[in-house]
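Q: I'm writing up a methods section and want to include an example of the input and output format. Could you take the sequence below and give the corresponding predicted structure tokens, formatted cleanly so I can copy it straight into the document?
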Amino acid sequence: MKSQPAARSPLETPLKAVIGDKTAVVFEKAFGYTTAGDLLRHYPRRYVMRGELSDISELKEGDEATVIADIKKVNLRRAPGRIIVEVIITDGSSEMSLTFFNQAWREKQLKVGMRGMFAGKVGVFNKKRQLSHPDYEILPEGGDEDEATAAFAGRAIPVYPATAKMPSWKIAQSIEIALHSIDEIVDPIPQEVLKQFNYPTLSEAFHSIHQPITRDEADRARTRLTFDEALLLQLLLAQRKSQMRSLPATARPIKSDGLVAEFEAQLPFTFTDGQREVSGEIEADMNQTHPMHRLLQGEVGSGKTVVALRAMLGTVDSGGQAALLAPTEVLATQHFSTINRILGPLAAAGTLGGSEHGTRVALLTGSMSAATKREVLAEISSGSAGIVIGTHALLSEGVEFHDLGLVVVDEQHRFGVEQRDALRGKAVTPPHLLVMTATPIPRTVAMTVFGDLDVSTLRQLPAGRPLITSHLIPSLDKPHFLDRAWERIREEVAKGHQAYVVASRISATEAEEGASVITDRDREVAAAMGVTLDEPADPKTIVAVEELAPALALGPLKGLKVAPLHGRQSSELKDETMRAFADGKIDVLVSTTVIEVGVDVPNASVMVIMNADRFGVSQLHQLRGRVGRGKVPGLCLFVTEAAEESSAIERLTAVTSTLDGFELSRIDLEQRSEGDILGKAQSGTQSQLRLLRVLRDEKLIDEARTVALTMIDGDPLLESTPELAREVEALREEEAASYLDKG
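A: Here is the clean output for your methods example:
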């Protein structure tokens, strides 16, 4: 349900109507901006006070830089066929040159002693930094009384994320036009909230962040605008949560003498205190007549799957069905095998030896044959399959449930909100929802990405779980260490154990699974927004599964049973390989990250991760969790060619130093962009969320969450604040549009 939209805001004025067609086209091409609001939300990266100079020594070759400096020397010289004007500028401690070709008039325009802003791409010539044909603007001298001087004297000069065609001062000029040409902005935030936190109005904040007199004024404006972003996100999540609670659902109470009781009686272990606590939270939710909407997060190996299985069996107990949505066929198949193994006779209803309280477990994936798929669809629609496990195939047309009572989504970060909703839409009445992630989530991320869910956390590992030892192998400096890694695999196999070897690529000629190609456009926009993109390593140095598997089988692991596994193999081959590995018929599995989550082979005791610097912190932790799942300790070896003092080595050292997934998730968060964090689940990061930083702004997020919950509790549709309702709806629509684009 949507609230009534407010009247059109001045911030929605087309940019062409504010700054003219020609300049507006440049902004659209460079940044994707089309409205006055887009432009006003292009915030300064930093400020330089009148009289301050830039630090030239920090500039790197290739930077798009705006430098505020003094002109120290101007020299014109003639060369065959051209005239060269060289200008030396200084910040007081370092120097760089400005070079102009065949523009002799620059010598008269640029005078020693002038101070200016100079913008361009930093180059290096004769080991010295230079800007070739830079854009520039000379700053007026402070003693003049003219209007231009008054605009600069004593003020903080904003330095904007810029591009070669749109330098910082041209952005400032365009923003000044916008600030003075659009109508008065109606503040979407209620006055009582502004007074509570002593925030300026929105109009004041825009003026203060772009044209501050002092840095304190700019900081106050930035805090207000960051709060706006946090509040928008929290309102969207609070609305979603409120709407879910208003829906009717069928209560799914667990019978005292039914399927769950028999399941718990046959388990060869007892639940941990944490598992019992979380199971109680889920059971209480599912006893309600509105849908459960809960996130279950936990450490690697903390037993999330068995908790989720108990909830699924409880749904079957009450006469309903449960669906488990997994992101890959390998993981779906693994869940299918694991659940059948855990349930035993309870998964064989209707067959000889099956339990009278039992059910059937069905698997549905996209690569199944038409005949097999028809059989599975019939079991689902008739209700004979109480538990249905599948990939995105569960979302497709033709999949009809008899009575879908519970949806379990595994690895929530790989699915969008709309995909969750698509599966829930297959139920007669809204089903209960349990989403799981094996990637521990810091509190701030839980509040921003999963704020529409209640959160349960499993930190406690089952008793007797063996430890995993981790070591870093710098293969360039110490190649004999890598030789020792292969020897360790041979030693473990000789003891009857198995090993994983993980690579980031399938083949040497193709990018790794899930990786994106960094384009020139990506680099330009990233540089403009002040973000550094990690360039891919040289492809020749990246180990790939298809080359590594035979090289190991014919080399250091000769005589062992080595098999490859990756996402581009047929479903049949992947299933056959995983079954063979689980059955101990394969000694060493050479794989991509398809084994990252859910794969449970207790006999695997050692893992070697090649090019470990290519993986994120949490991903390495997840991969490492595939070993040490049985009765013997695990060993994980991170192989890297990264330089000794690099950030990659720092990251890998952090992973080897702790098994605490929550600590590692915080380190991971510190090293990732906000787009990585928010983009999967909240896609409004490009235009709506520009200032908010999940770690830095925890206090603001807390405050915004409190305000949002209070507002939605009293006014779920935000009918009393139509401007705010409009902005929340814009964020919602952006999220939906992003989902459709990805589809």
